[in-house]
Amino acid sequence: MAVAGTRIVGIAAVLSAATAFPAMATDPPLGLAPTYSSRRLGVVPEGEVPNAAAITRRIWAPGIDEGYVPQGLTVVGSDVYLGTYKSIESSVSRGPCRLYRIAMATGSVTATLDLPPACGHAGGIARGAEGRIWVVDTRTMFEIALSPGSAGTLGEVRREVRIEAPLKGSFAAGHDGALWLGSYERQGEGRLWRLPLAVIQGSSIGAADVSAEYRLPAKAQGAAFDAGGRLWISISGATKGELHVMNLATGAVTARHAMPAGIEDLSFDSTGGLWSVSEAGSRRWSNWATHFPVVFRLDTARLR
């Protein structure tokens, strides 16, 4: 009976996931549509963004009407946590940071948290210890204790930790009992540093706390590990985006997939869906050919 019962639950979970995330997102995005632009989602003049057939959910990035630019992202349970900074000027890359909690099933914003003044970009978010997430911001990272259950508040900042050079917190991932910090480099290779959670105790972290270091491609914007331990990296700029699947041991890229320009951070959900967000079409980047300021979920089996 136990085996049969487990099998039924497993089948139900698969059916539930299939219902929640159809094969392709054809309905209008969930959430609140912006009022500053009437452009359709896609690329001018080509039409759909690359690998549109693999996208199973789209949610308007919250705060874009107010000038918030989406950046860091992670999934915890049935919620997406999105980090943003406020700027409508292409020459201004920092501003007040706000964290949003988004229900992936409805696209509704269920809570927000304004981050301390030391945050100016919120480039990456990663799961930490149970009930905690990290928001990284180049030279500072913030540990957030999440509010339990469906509380109306997102959580609170428990501590700030200084990121000492040569480490750099452009983006982050949580995996295998560690926080992984990645560096964005416009020219030349980036880096990915593994920091066991147990060593993040004081007011700063540096090279002495690193347990492993790896090379990354230029213009890396986000990282996530899938259930098999493979590393996925987002690469992007104003005109194109890509997903790279990497073998950490050799540094080899084992797969490449075209993505929307402006793709940022990455995170896998419990069903294997890969979530991301694009800053293309935010008010700061409203003149780009790509207009895709949405949080979106990818079915990686449909990527081409």
Strand content: 35-45%
**CATH C-level:** Mainly Beta
Second-tier CATH architecture: Beta Barrel
- CA-to-CA gap between the ends? 41 Å
Give the oligomeric state.
single chain
| Rg, nearest Å | 18 Å
Low-confidence stretches: 1-18
Into how many domains do the coordinates divide? Answer: 1
Could you give a short account of the major beta sheet?
5 strands, mixed
| Topology order in helix (H) and strand (E) letters | HEEEEEEEEEEEEEEEEEEEEEEE
Please tell me what the overall shape is. Answer: globular
Question: How many E-type strands?
Answer: 23
- Approximately how much helix is present in the residues? under 10%
Describe the structure.
The protein is mainly β and 304 residues long. It has one domain: Lipocalin, CATH 2.40.128. 6% of the residues lie in helices and 44% in strands. It has one helix at residues 2-20; strands at 42-43, 55-60, 68-76, 79-86, 97-103, 109-114, 124-127, 132-137, 140-146, 155-163, 171-175, 178-182, 190-196, 204-205, 212-216, 220-225, 231-236, 241-247, 252-259, 263-268, 274-278, 290-291, 294-298. The longest helix has 19 residues, at 2-20. The radius of gyration is 18 Å and the shape is globular.
